[in-house]
Specification:
The complex is a heterodimer of chains A (460) and B (966).
Chain A (H helix, E strand, L loop, with lengths): L9 H8 L9 H4 L13 E6 L14 H6 L14 E4 L6 E4 L4 E4 L3 H5 L4 E8 L5 H10 L9 H9 L9 E4 L24 E3 L6 H4 L10 H20 L5 H23 L7 H7 L2 H15 L4 E5 L12 H25 L6 E6 L3 E7 L13 E4 L3 E6 L7 E3 L1 E2 L6 E3 L2 E2 H11 L8 E4 L2 E4 L14
Chain B lengths: L12 H4 L12 H18 L19 H6 L16 H7 L15 H12 L12 H7 L13 H11 L10 H13 L5 H9 L5 H11 L1 H14 L19 H13 L4 H10 L15 H4 L8 H17 L18 H11 L2 E2 L15 H29 L2 H10 L5 H11 L3 H8 L13 H4 L2 H23 L10 E2 L6 E4 L7 E5 L21 H9 L6 H14 L20 H13 L4 H9 L2 H4 L6 H6 L12 E2 L2 H11 L16 E2 L18 H4 L19 H9 L1 H13 L5 H13 L5 H12 L13 E7 L2 E4 L2 E3 L2 E3 L13 E2 L3 E3 L5 E7 L4 E6 L1 E4 L10 E7 L3 E8 L3 E3 L2 E6 L4 E7 L9 E2 L3 E3 L4 E3 L14 H11 L1 H4 E2 L1
Antiparallel strand pairs in B: 1-2, 3-4, 5-24, 6-9, 7-8, 7-13, 9-10, 10-11, 11-12, 12-21, 13-20, 14-19, 14-22, 15-18, 15-21, 16-17, 16-20, 22-23
Helix pairs in contact in B: 2-5, 8-9, 8-10, 10-26, 11-12, 13-23, 15-16, 17-22, 18-20, 24-25, 24-26, 29-32, 31-32, 32-35, 33-34, 33-35, 34-35
Classes of the chains: A alpha/beta (460), B alpha+beta (966).
């Protein structure tokens, strides 16, 4: 269906609904794609969430000083969740990749091959060394209070390009990450902007999207029902001067009818050629990266891919084994996704974000009386400095921006707070983060609250 | 201007004067520049020391008014308008001069410095001097004026508004429309065809008045309007936060039922509010009203952050009852409304001094399942034991460190608190113990048991929390198993402590002391601070005091909103400067005064509204009127509205002839199949995990107070109608109720049941054509080889209910004999005395192997005795048995010969101790050519098989006529 057919203007909506300003952001804003107020580079967002906190000094932020000081105390101590001790050299080796020569750890060698497309920010920082508040900060821009998630803001602002699929989809295998649905809530924005969570372990479409499958009648019979419905509704509407509110509901049934097929198709990986399966590789991560691409391709506005339920990257213990295993699971699929998007010309207007809710300490975590006893060779949470990378969607390519101190404990140069990251990403999507507001409970709310600076240095 | 702009400002006139609502603030670009670029920085970085609100003005310099700036500080003027380089202010923020570097801490960025330079060059324009002072702003807010009753009826006021625009009301709606509208408005339920016909035939002059009275007297009135109130009260049946996600409140429903019965009894609204805020403090109160305290208690909890819990309570009470956004004043004085930060913290003093009573008050009589008392006592004992053991270990450990603490005590002399914290960190000591040494407490290492929480480790914190959650879960289990109902009450702590302002909302940054008092704009203040306990009862009295201009207006507006689809004030929880103005202020005031004069009777208010001509007018369009007033704020017609999900669901049950009209009781699961016939208001609301059925239809999130529901139209709603088992189930039931044999009579019956009327000629033809058409049925879905149930004394009983992802005993587990037993695809839990059983029925005679593993988890504090898993054949008896307790067992067997129809039961029993018995077990049965996986084959009940009548009912449920009220 062409969106225009039942696009309802704001004025029309106000008229027909008899609703006041509080309910203004309604039907009209739920339907169809919208242009952002400012020039934009990115049309959609892909967030690859290494939840639990991927260690930067073992992946994208090499620290020779750390190797040098390995086993010795370092002059920097910052308060983290638990007690840490001496410098803990990365067990992984780094080498430069691509023309840019940005160094990447051996555990992300495939992503390393794509480094000339990445903009690695090595000076990220956030506020609190615990998962819950840091997840909330990265996803919703506030450590504690109930605020809409980034994806909700984006779908609120841009609408959806494919009305047969939800505009904001979260992929997470095996259940929910820490903080569950709070990570993608719409809070005071209309409920339609909350993400649809999909357990990528499931293969049956009816378990992916509620009520998507008609299990009682054939498609032909369902069509016959809908035709009768249309006829009855039409008579009702004609007697009511074709109220747009009534028409919107009629159209939503047609939409739902088509959505049944579209959703089936979007999640059906048997439709991918063997070459694609080979490119992405085997396993859960390959599967969900491929689904992510199929969704983006179909116009889903915001796709967030979590590594797994709980907080898989939270390697308090044995970083070598654990980070090694986790990276092995996702390195090839992530690289494949980047290549795939690029080859389809989609990387240009897809803004990709990779990283965790914080980084990890360059110092080793110490066992403590009554807590994490027996933990060795792991790292604690680190909100003071960590790395994330962006790709596509109008960011500079092959750039390593900012730096942590010589040990990688805290962001030191060109610091980028999570608020700044949000401001920058909104900018790329065509929004001034200070003006993109929603009035609620007497206040104009923003994703960046009262903070945030657009990091112009990384814009292409 | 952003929120932080006024951060740090105290109640100080010049600046607060800018909390305007559109007060004439010049639109000049210079002022704009000041407001967006300069003021926020001044506030955030300078006013702490250089404003009238500063604790101590530094250097005699104030930067908060033009006059003060021109006057400058002790060393002269700091700003020379037009001369940036010559201005001390600019030089100090540039930090080029070593002796002059401001502000302290990190310097201002280059961009900010450039903004300041531009500002000075442009003349250093500041708007303050001309702006009105805050007190005046308060006086001009319409909602703080005393409401005055004006002569005239509702119709008079509305007609007056319309006449001013040359408009008129629409004519009265037809009787059929009217009875449907008023029935759904008042009770949430559509009238039956018979009721409609009786009303249409009733020609007596007071037929409509009689109808209104009958509806208001119906117990369904309380259910409908109770649900509206539960949105205000952000009601949910579970706690939700990351720590205890999904944890149920044991007796949340007693609050919900109290609300319903209070409304049904037409409890005066002032009393209704008073009880919800302070029933426990009201002298000689009937104990049943303690349930009302759920209003405070049942919000979202933040166990790791009390300020958030308190904030939620302040917000629900102030937006919900007073229509003021007091929570905006948490970090700074309200930007627009006359609410200083001190008001927020005076309420903080009230809502932070609360606790849950040791024992929740009993509300009624019921046979208490005694088994739970022993279990709860056991968990309490485990908690005590854990604390004592770990406390002893910790103290013993500290005693080995005496020498280190002695040294640290010496070294800590003269250090600041952060430095001491750092020292403790470096030396791996405990701060609390060190402080005892520093305070020279006798025997400092022997920390008393009561202070355990100040010395325990992160692991201890996790373990004690796990035990607390276990206790609460058990309590909820007892409640859901029929334990005597109790009030989710709160009480004041014995010695309430007044809060301090948290400067910029930061709890670690205390400012002025704020004793509890009424809001300043309502005449409260430190001079008449509350004195009884936390001050909650006095606060409640200040809310319902007849001199309070807000409370009556706010509730009148909410009632109006639910009758018309939009309030007279379209922002029902914001009556401040940023909210919308009332469309009919005189009408709002008159209704508010009359509400108070009528003894706060809501039913009288309803009756007045419902019998007005304004309410009774038709909802048809009028292009001329629409051109003048597209939002229909002047009420030239009735608004057409879509039913809320609760009404949609309830009316489907009603039309299917199965609505349970029982009032009150334990929550049931809305996701369960076969569906419960109870009204939706009794559905279990899990905070953070609202069933898709509700959330797709704009159900208010219970995370916080909800002023109104959104009205969205999204395809998920249509998918619910097209494919949900619930709608099809009601359609099948409605179809089965049809008695006639002839197609036209059948169509007629369905129309009457679902739409409350007979079909028109065209509709009859279409309907008959539809039911006479061919039908193609899908092959019946495979019920599969698996069955799910419990086994007691060797007898298998299938579970009756499928709830979202599990088979269980009832609509709200635990349920009767099934107790807490359930089975999911890969996991489950046995009941108290019954074993839970996944039964496999062999479709043929074949040799099979069994694969899988049985796992039982134990937390850090082991609990219960694990479970026993068995495989039992109907023909061969027990084949294998495993006991797991915090362990797992491979459940592999091979070479088993089974006959067609033979059953293999995979039974898990609780062993002796029925606690902490959750397990994982998803066996696979393998034959040579085929295998049956418990996980992959797991399904709910087979879909209903609709016949053609059911499918016509299905269509009628989906029509706009069913979904809208006009």
């Amino acid at each position: 269906m062409k969106p225009k057919e039942f696009l309802i203007t704001r004025r029309e909506m106000l008229t027909r609904c008899g609703m006041g300003m509080g309910a203004l952001a309604l039907t009209s804003e739920l339907q169809g794609a919208k242009r952002p107020p400012l020039p934009f580079k990115a049309k959609r967002v892909l967030h690859l969430f290494m939840n639990g906190g991927v260690s930067h000094v073992d992946t994208f932020d090499p620290k020779p000083q750390l190797t040098k000081f390995g086993g010795k105390p370092i002059p920097i101590t910052l308060k983290t969740e638990r007690r840490t001790g001496s410098a803990f050299a990365s067990p992984f080796s780094f080498k430069p990749y691509g023309k840019s020569g940005i160094e990447v750890s051996e555990i992300f060698s495939n992503v390393g091959e794509c480094v000339d497309d990445l903009c690695v920010i090595r000076s990220m920082h956030t506020d609190i060394p615990n998962h819950e508040p840091s997840l909330m900060m990265l996803n919703c821009g506030d450590v504690r209070q109930v605020r809409p998630s980034f994806g909700s803001w984006v779908t609120y602002g841009l609408g959806t390009e494919n009305e047969n699929l939800p505009g904001f989809i979260v992929l997470c295998p095996d259940g929910l990450p820490t903080q569950g649905n709070q990570n993608w809530r719409s809070a005071f924005l209309p409920g339609a902007f909350q993400a649809t969570h999909i357990d990528t372990r499931e293969v049956q479409i009816e378990k992916l999207i509620e009520n998507i499958r008609n299990t009682t009648t054939t498609a032909k019979e369902q069509r016959r029902e809908l035709d009768l419905l249309k006829e009855l509704n039409q008579g009702f509407q004609e007697r009511r001067q074709n109220d747009a509110l009534l028409e919107a509901r009629v159209q939503s049934f047609e939409l739902a009818y088509r959505m049944q097929m579209e959703a089936d198709d979007a999640f059906d990986l048997t439709k991918e050629p063997a070459s694609m399966h080979k490119l992405y590789g085997e396993g859960m991560q390959a599967r969900q990266m491929m689904i992510a691409r199929r969704l983006l391709e179909r116009g889903v506005r915001f796709v967030q891919v979590w590594h797994g339920a709980g907080q898989p990257w939270d390697s308090h213990d044995d970083i070598k084994t654990n980070h090694g295993r986790l990276a092995r699971e996702c390195d090839q699929p992530i690289a494949a996704l980047l290549k795939d998007l690029k080859q389809r010309g989609m990387l240009e207007d897809t803004l990709v974000l990779w990283g965790g809710e914080f980084g990890r300490t360059p110092t080793v975590e110490l066992p403590d009386l009554g807590a994490n006893s027996g933990m060795v060779n792991g790292r604690d949470h680190n909100p003071y400095g960590f790395s994330m990378w962006l790709a596509g969607g109008g960011v500079k390519k092959g750039l390593a921006y900012g730096a942590t101190d010589e040990f990688g404990f805290a962001a030191a140069e060109n610091k980028v707070h999570v608020h700044d990251l949000h401001a920058t990403m909104l900018h790329l999507l065509g929004f001034d983060h200070e003006k993109f507001t929603y009035k609620y409970a007497g206040r104009d709310f923003r994703l960046t609250d009262v903070h945030g600076r657009v990091v112009r240095e990384i814009l292409a | 201007m952003n929120c932080e702009t006024i951060q740090g400002m105290r109640a100080h006139s010049e600046i607060l004067a800018l909390c305007w609502a559109g007060v004439a603030l010049a639109q000049s670009p210079a002022l704009d520049h000041f407001e967006t670029k300069i003021r926020p920085v001044l506030v955030a970085r300078c006013y702490g020391c250089h404003s009238a609100g500063a604790a101590a003005i530094q250097g005699g310099l104030r930067l908060d008014s033009t006059a003060a700036m021109q006057r400058g500080g002790n060393s002269g003027p700091v700003v020379l308008a037009g001369d940036a380089d010559g201005s001390v202010l600019i030089r100090s923020i540039r930090r080029t001069d070593k002796s002059l570097q401001m502000p302290p801490g990190p310097g201002l960025s280059k961009e900010v410095v450039a903004d300041f330079e531009r500002w000075v060059k442009d003349g250093a324009v500041m708007p303050m001097d001309a702006a009105p002072v805050r007190a005046k702003a308060g006086k001009t807010l319409w909602s703080l004026q005393k409401p005055v009753r004006q002569p005239g009826s509702i119709d008079d006021f509305v007609k007056k508004g319309l006449a001013e625009k040359g408009l008129a009301m629409s004519s009265e709606a037809d009787r059929r429309t009217l009875i449907r509208r008023v029935s759904i408005d008042v009770t949430g339920l559509a009238p039956t065809a018979a009721e409609t016909e009786a009303f249409m035939a009733d020609r007596s002059p007071d037929a409509y008045g009689t109808l209104v009275d009958r509806l208001l007297a119906s117990p369904h009135y309380g259910e409908r309007w109770g649900r509206h109130w539960l949105d205000v009260a952000r009601y949910a049946d579970s706690v939700n936060d990351s720590v205890n996600a999904g944890q149920r409140y044991p007796w949340s429903y007693t609050y919900r039922d109290w609300v319903i019965s209070a409304l049904n009894a037409d409890m005066p609204y002032d009393q209704f509010v008073l009880y919800q805020l302070a029933a426990d403090r009201v002298p000689n109160v009937d104990k049943k009203h303690l349930a009302a305290l759920g209003f405070i208690r049942l919000g979202r909890e933040f166990p790791k952050s009390q300020p958030e819990t308190v904030d939620d309570r302040i917000d629900a009470s102030t937006r919900g009852l007073l229509g003021l956004t007091v929570a905006c004043a948490r970090c700074h004085d309200h930007k627009y409304d006359p609410i200083p930060t001190k008001d927020y913290y005076s309420l903080y003093s009230i809502f932070s001094n609360l606790r849950e009573p040791e024992e929740l008050p009993v509300l009624g009589k019921a046979a208490e399942p005694t088994v739970y008392a022993a279990r709860l006592a056991k968990i309490r004992a485990a908690q005590d034991e854990y604390r004592k053991r770990r406390h002893a270990e910790m103290v013993a450990f500290f005693q080995t460190q005496d020498a280190e603490y002695q040294k640290a005590t010496v070294d800590a002399k003269g250090l600041s608190n952060p430095e001491i914290e750092e020292l403790v960190r470096q030396r791996q000591l405990n701060l609390h113990v060190l402080n005892r040494w520093r305070k020279e407490v006798a025997n400092p290492s022997a920390v008393p048991l009561a202070e355990f929480e100040q010395i325990y480790t992160e692991g201890d914190s996790n373990n004690t929390r796990a035990l607390r959650v276990r206790y609460n879960t058990m309590l909820a289990q007892a409640a859901y198993d029929g334990a005597v109902p109790r009030a989710m009450a709160i009480e004041d702590v014995p010695e309430p402590v007044a809060a301090h302002v948290f400067v910029r909302g930061n709890a670690n940054n205390p400012g002025a002391l704020t004793p509890p008092h009424a809001l300043t704009c309502l005449g409260g203040g430190e001079d008449n601070a509350f004195r009884e306990g936390s001050g909650r009862l006095e606060f409640a009295r200040s809310v319902v005091d007849k001199v309070n201009p807000l409370t009556a207006r706010v509730i009148v507006n909410r009632v109006w909103m639910h009758h018309f689809g939009m309030g007279l004030v379209p922002t029902p929880s914001d009556f401040g400067f940023r909210g919308d103005l009332p469309s009919h202020p005189e009408l709002l005031d008159t209704l508010a005064v009359e509400l108070m004069q009528s003894g706060w009777s809501l039913k009288r208010l309803h009756r007045r509204i419902l019998t007005s001509a304004v309410y009774r007018q038709g909802s048809g369009n009028n292009e001329a009127a629409r051109a003048v007033d597209p939002e229909n704020r002047l009420l030239w017609r009735m608004n057409r509205r879509r039913l809320e999900i609760e009404s949609l669901r309830d009316n489907m049950l009603l039309a299917a002839g199965r609505l349970d009209r029982g009032v009150g009781g334990l929550p049931f699961s809305l996701a369960a199949l076969p569906s419960s016939p109870r009204r939706s208001v009794y559905g279990f609301v899990e905070r953070g995990r609202i069933p898709a059925m509700l959330s797709a239809f704009d159900f208010s999130s219970p995370d916080q107070h909800a002023p109104l529901r959104f009205v969205t139209t999204v395809p998920q709603q249509a998918l619910f109608f097209l494919n949900s088992p619930f709608v099809m189930e009601q359609a099948v039931r409605a179809g089965a109720e049809v008695k006639s044999r002839e197609a036209d009579a059948q169509v007629g019956e369905l129309y009457r049941a679902i739409l409350g009327r007979s079909p028109a000629a065209g509709e009859l033809i279409a309907g008959v054509r539809f039911v006479s058409g061919e039908t193609e049925k899908l092959a019946a879905t495979e019920t599969g080889a698996w069955q799910y149930g419990v086994t007691e004394r060797g007898r298998f009983t299938a579970f009756p209910v499928f709830n979202a992802d599990r088979w269980q005993g009832g609509y709200a587990s635990p349920a009767g004999a099934f107790s807490k037993a359930f089975l999911r695809a890969t996991s489950g839990e046995p009941g108290d005395t019954t074993a839970v059983t996944r039964r496999w029925v062999s479709p043929e005679t074949v040799t099979i192997a069994i694969d899988g593993s049985l796992r039982h988890n134990q937390g850090a504090v082991p609990y219960g005795d694990g479970v026993r898993g068995r495989v039992v054949s109907s023909r061969q008896g027990e084949l294998a048995s495993w006991v797991v307790n915090g362990s797992s067992a491979e459940t592999k067997m091979a070479g088993i010969k089974v006959e067609k129809g033979e059953t293999l039961d995979f039974i898990v029993d609780p062993r002796k101790d029925p606690e902490s018995d959750g397990f994982n077990w998803a066996p696979t049965v393998k034959a040579a050519s085929q295998s049956w996986s418990a996980k992959d084959d797991f399904v709910g009940p087979p879909a209903a098989r609709p016949n053609v009548l059911a499918r016509l009912a299905h269509v009628l449920f989906q029509t706009n006529e069913f979904a809208f009220v006009e």
